[in-house]
Amino acid sequence: MKKKTHIKGIILFYIIAVLFRYLAVKTTLLNFTDNGYLIILLRGCGPAIGAWVAVKAFRIPVRFSLKGNYNNILLPFVIFWILPVVLIGTVSSIQESKFPVLLLFTVLVYGLLEEIGWRGFLQEQLKHLPKFQAISIITVLWFVWHLNFEGTITNLIFFGILFFGTWGIGKVYSSTCSLLAVAGLHSLNNFFRHGLHRTELILIAVLLAIWISFIIWYNRNYKTIAANRGISDNKFTSAEKH
């Protein structure tokens, strides 16, 4: 049976996501606060709010999960949140004599708010489409959501980054179903406010290597355990029948 596409739900989700983004970055609405952490979160909350409203309004069967396929929430939280905070925070404390733990967790929550919309909702709604088509749609919508339409080389590069990011983060989400995992991956670039230099690129490479290795290792072991458990259950059932 072909999966139904909730076109109205997607439209409502996107209107709300763009509206909140516009209010946050193109108006003076956020002038009421000087709290930089709160401003960061308000700039990224649109996709999460849009997804939640669309799901409720049209009763769309979407399962938002922080832990995903993992046995408990602690494992993805440690690997995809605590690890980058400790690693990047330690390097930052060495270079700048401060450990920006609040900023790092704020960036992770920002990534989570976006990923609830882009992966948890939109990717799920488009997953029955051909992969390239789904990736292209998400990329275009994600790019437009940023409301930066300057015809520059930087923007063209940014579009390409979003395309490969949609592909890569999408693969992680398909593999883990964990919003914590994709939020960590999403936040890699946002961790570094002063640009990507040698140290930052090394940190990104290290984290990606650890995360990808962990996902592959866990999936292989999880499937093996699940398969063995299935065999044991079948043997137990057969023994009962006899």
TrEMBL record:
Q: Which domain of life is it from?
A: Bacteria
List this protein's GO terms for biological process.
CAAX-box protein maturation; proteolysis
Is Transmembrane found in the keyword set?
yes
Q: Matching Pfam families, A to Z?
A: Rce1-like (PF02517)
Is the Hydrolase keyword given for this protein? yes
Every copy of the CAAX prenyl protease 2/Lysostaphin resistance protein A-like domain together lies at 99-192
Q: What name does the UniProt record give this protein?
A: CPBP family intramembrane metalloprotease
Question: What is the organism of origin for this protein?
Answer: Pararcticibacter amylolyticus
